[in-house]
Amino acid sequence: MAARSVVALVSVAEVVAGDLADHLERRGHYVRQARQPWEAESLLSAGGIDVVVVGDDVSQAEGRELLKRYGGEGGADFILICRPADLVDKVLALELGAADVVQSPLNVRELAARIGGLLTRRGRNTQELIVLENATVDLRSAMVMHRSGAEHQLSPGQVALLRLFLASPRKVLTRDDIIAAAPAENADAFDRSIDSRIVRLRRKLDTETITTIRGAGYRFDPPTPRGD
């Protein structure tokens, strides 16, 4: 199993840091925090950090200094948060090699997605994403991310059931197939419990891709990709 990626939050506003850490940890990443730039020195000098997010509580000069010392070739990727008026500082940070500069106020979910993109490019992302009609599912963290912004956690049994359908697209799976490959999370695995599991999974995924084939079983029909 690949090592979990590590994200450092440096002087990120407390409310944002709490929400962002929650997003990242639920997706399988480690989060380290430093409230002040001087605390970041010991954190970053120890190495092992994949992405550093520098908040706008840090002066742009201090942020750039951290970037010069700990970013670049072989270092961590840096995302700097800046205020809308700091255009010159934004350009300077990008010229110094910042991977991204985002303006505050920001959307935490969007920032988490930007971090995920950087980790993917580093080959360190632990996500395994499945795109459905109304939601995206990260199978490794068992997280359902709806287009509305809501998120739900899948149970281990629901992940096993979804993986079974994904492995057999457009194939009718009988109740026996499901019980054998994705058993229920308790001993009550009678026929009617399969129906209940399917209903709960459909509801959590907000999907119509899992179809009941009367008298035969269930079939997963992958959604048609959306056009541009």
Strand order of the largest sheet: 2-1-3-4-5
Order of H and E elements: EHEHEHEHEHEEEEHEHHEE
Look at the structure and name the CATH superfamily of the largest domain.
Response regulator
Total beta strand runs: 12
Low-confidence stretches: 187-191
What percentage of the residues does DSSP assign to strands (E)?
A: 15-25%
- Domain count, please report it: 2
Describe what this molecule looks like in 3D.
There is one protein chain. The chain folds into 2 domains: 116 residues, Response regulator (Rossmann fold, 3-Layer(aba) Sandwich); 92 residues, Winged helix-like DNA-binding domain superfamily/Winged helix DNA-binding domain (Arc Repressor Mutant, subunit A), CATH 1.10.10. About 2% of the residues have low confidence. The protein is 39% helix and 21% strand. The radius of gyration is 22 Å and the shape is elongated. The strands form 3 sheets. Strands 2-1-3-4-5 form a 5-stranded parallel β-sheet, with helices on both faces. A 4-stranded antiparallel β-sheet has the order 6-7-8-9, with no helix packed on it. GO terms for molecular function: phosphorelay response regulator activity; transcription cis-regulatory region binding.
Task: Summarize this structure as a short list of keywords or feature phrases.
single chain; 228 residues; Rossmann fold; Arc Repressor Mutant, subunit A; four-stranded antiparallel beta sheet; WalR-like; OmpR/PhoB-type_DNA-bd
Question: What is shown here, in short?
Answer:
With 228 residues, this protein is of the alpha/beta class. The protein has two domains: 116 residues, Rossmann fold; 92 residues, Winged helix-like DNA-binding domain superfamily/Winged helix DNA-binding domain (Arc Repressor Mutant, subunit A), CATH 1.10.10.10.
